[in-house]
Amino acid sequence: MTDVLLDSDVLIDHLLGAVRRVVTGDAAYSSVSRCELFAGRQADEDTINLLLAPIVELPVDRDVAESGGGRGGGTVSTPDALVAATALLHDLVLVTRDAKRFAGIEGLRVRQPDAEAAAFAEVLVNCTAGLHSVDAPRAAGEEHLGGKVVVDISNALDFSNGSPPRAALPDEGNVAQQLQAAFPDARVVKTLNTMTAADMVEPGLLPGGHSVFLSGEDAAAKRGGSASCSPTSAGDPRASSTSAASHRPRRRALPPAVAEPHGHRQLALFNVAAVRACS
């Protein structure tokens, strides 16, 4: 049984790699979203079709068109009105990143997962693609970030021209600095961005010791960020964690990368080890 209707912005997030979502229950999408995905061209046609293939598509039939037509205009755009009408007529919960677009539509049930997660959590971890990391917390609601530790593990990498990516460091500084400037009441901590994602959750994949940098201006926030990441190395004697916000090594040694099978590609595992030069 279909439970939810996915808005276009949720599907676009997947295509851009900004946020990967897991939706419990069976999901559907409106034909309006298919139109918007193909119009925006956030990905090639095959990738879009691959994303949509396992999801139920609900067409804009006469009932949806007439219902949506009566809701369009004013503050609700015609595409949004059609999506809302689809959710209402099929008795579905609309999952969207921007509930404000659908405000005032009577009877419409809306879920905004970003905001729900941010409101519930004590520590927030920014796992989004670095180029979208400032936009994602805005969708979660700035009011939910105040006073909370935000652990930023992202890098501003531009994959628009394929791999290897280009480092896209703007004048505003790294992603953590951008987040702190955009959300001054949040307590931002930067860590884990020197290693591949697989190493973050299973450091034993890469032989040898690890140095994990933990940076930020708020000492208490760094303790909270360190505690939230401690299971990464707990119980694994091959992984050692170093808080290096103020540690400035004179040399940095890169351990040899270990290639692991990853589909049809080889995924290089890496992290840094900080050492001091001895005279």
How would you briefly describe this protein structure?
The protein is an alpha/beta fold. Helices cover 30% and strands 19% of the residues. The protein has 10 helices and 15 strands.
Describe the structure.
- This protein is 30% helix and 19% strand.
- With 279 residues, the protein is of the alpha/beta class.
- It folds into three domains: 2-111, Rossmann fold (3-Layer(aba) Sandwich), CATH 3.40.50; 113-193, 3-Layer(aba) Sandwich (Rossmann fold), CATH 3.40.50; 196-279, no CATH class.
- The strands form five sheets. It has a five-stranded parallel beta sheet with strand order 3-2-1-4-5. A four-stranded mixed beta sheet has the order 6-7-10-11, sandwiched between helices. A two-stranded antiparallel ribbon has the order 8-9.
CATH class of the largest domain: Alpha Beta
**What order do the helices and strands follow?**
EHEHHEHHEEHEHEEEHEHEHEEEE
CATH fold name of the largest domain? Rossmann fold
Subunit organisation of the chains: single chain
Looking at this structure, what is the CATH superfamily of the largest domain?
A: 5'-nuclease
Tally of separate domains? 3
Binned strand content = 15-25%
Compute the number of strand runs.
15
Shape category:
elongated
- What's the alpha carbon Rg, rounded to whole Å? 22 Å
Strand order of the largest sheet: 3-2-1-4-5
Structural class estimated from helices and strands: alpha/beta
Largest sheet: 5 strands, parallel
Summed over residues and divided by their number, the pLDDT gives a mean of: 75
Number of distinct helices: 10
Binned, the helix content reads 25-40%
Specify the CATH architecture of the largest domain.
Answer: 3-Layer(aba) Sandwich
The rounded distance between the terminal residues' Cα atoms is 69 Å
Uncertain stretches of 5 or more adjacent residues: 231-266
